[in-house]
Amino acid sequence: MELNDTITREALQPVETENAAPRKVFMKTYGCQMNVYDSQRMSDALSLEGYLPTEVIEDADLILINTCHIREKAAEKVYSQLGRLRKLKDERAARGRETLVGVAGCVAQAEGDEILRRAPVVDLVIGPQTYHRLPQVVRKARAGEKVVETEYAIEDKFEHLPSASRNATRSRGVTAFLTVQEGCDKFCTFCVVPYTRGSEVSRPVAKIVAEAEKLADAGVREVTLLGQNVNAWHGEGPDGSEWGLGKLLFRLAEIPGIARLRYTTSHPRDMDDALIEAHRDLDILMPYLHLPVQSGSDRILKAMNRKHTAADYLALVDRIRAAKPDIAMSGDFIVGFPGESDEDFEATMQLVRDVTYAQAFSFKYSPRPGTPGAEMGSHVDETVKDERLQRLQALLITQQRAFAASLVNKEMDLLIEKAGREAGQRVGRSPWLQPVIVDEKAGEIGDIVRVRITKAGPNSLFSEPV
Ligand code: SAH
Ligand code: SF4
Ligand code: F3S
Predict the structure, then answer these.
(1) Closest CA to 67 of 121, 110, 5, 12
(2) What digits encode the pLDDT tens for the residues 120-151?
(3) Measured from the CB, is residue 436 less than 6 Å from ligand 3?
(4) DSSP category for residue 287
(5) Which atom of ligand 3 lies closest to the CA of 35?
(6) pTM of the predicted model, to two decimals?
(7) How far is the CA of 64 from the centre of ligand 1 (A)?
(8) How far is residue 364 from each of residues 251, 293, 313, 337, 361, measured CA to CA in Å?
């Protein structure tokens, strides 16, 4: 592999000279955007330890799997992948190469040393709150120790992880994630996140602004603020007053170079007036909102501990749309939560019809060990869950297609993100997060160009420059 420009000269210095070639790390990331962000930060930290990123798993001296625990299959996929790594590790050992296997992320946090028992191929287990200790953990593992690091750290991991260097950021394209908040205190009864990510923590304004400036400096045009409950973010502003996400967005909008802002995932209960006003008044805040509701039945919402009703949610959507009429809504839904009757499910279908979503994610309820939902009686039959999921998804897809079709012949701004699959094409993003194909003559990567939509395909839009 060539030395790529993600590594600074400084970063290369700590490489030991015993091996002519620098060590390489292969990372595989599952789960939410926060894991994507964390993987990049871990990659930055490892580059300081002399590990260059590689896309070729057979070349990797360190294989790091950043895992998700949100639903059953996610964890099972990790275990079967770990099973397959045994052979790879043995083959490399036969060639005299040592391979470290690490598990990070939410499965690491939830399962801890159970992972070492179920998958002896693993050398290190590290939870999301301890990533700043990754360099020490890797050093210990290289010395032959099996390491499990899942204690909640008192110190803030973000303050100890190296911040993305200019070079490290440059190769990452024109859009970037920026974690502003982590963890959750809401304890929805189906969800593992409060257990795997710990309680709610907000990063300070100054750190967020500094990181966003660095990203802008590296050519990033669109920043998506991340948090498990991103709109619960709060912090002390430079004026000493308490800021919420709305105010933070206004501050970030002042950074030269940043042309688009987004945030995800928000909770209906934390959608305050200032944030809704930001949607009204801040042009660079994109007109797209991911606002999970999970169910349209008040009985189920109560059992889920969501602490809002379907009517609360609908009223909130009305207020948001009054402030920003062209906003597109996105959501998450769970079907087959314990006790969900046909009537409860119909209430979810009705809510979807009332809101109309541009995009949505829907899941069958998956009991998570240690959550209250898993202990509840009257679990819903798998076949009933399947049938409900199919009906819900059919409705959501119809809405998604109708939304895409409604954009045909309309003009919009496109942020050009990358080369298209076919020669002569580029792919950009609409304000509503859809991929849009355009001729490469329309502009360079990173440009924002005006286009007219000519056609809506199943997964992307087609356009011509105006
Ligand atoms: N913090 C976000 C969502 C985090 S998890 C929020 O509060 O909305 C992402 C989505 O996964 C959830 O919105 C939910 O729809 C789904 N999910 C979480 N736990 C689940 C479970 N046990 N079974 C099925 N889906 C689940
Ligand atoms: Fe999970 Fe609920 Fe917290 Fe979202 S708000 S992360 S669904 S517990
Ligand atoms: Fe999964 Fe953890 Fe994100 S459980 S969805 S990776 S917070």
Answers:
(1) 110
(2) 999 999 999 999 899 999 999 999 999 999 98
(3) no
(4) S
(5) 6
(6) 0.90
(7) 24
(8) 39, 14, 21, 8, 11
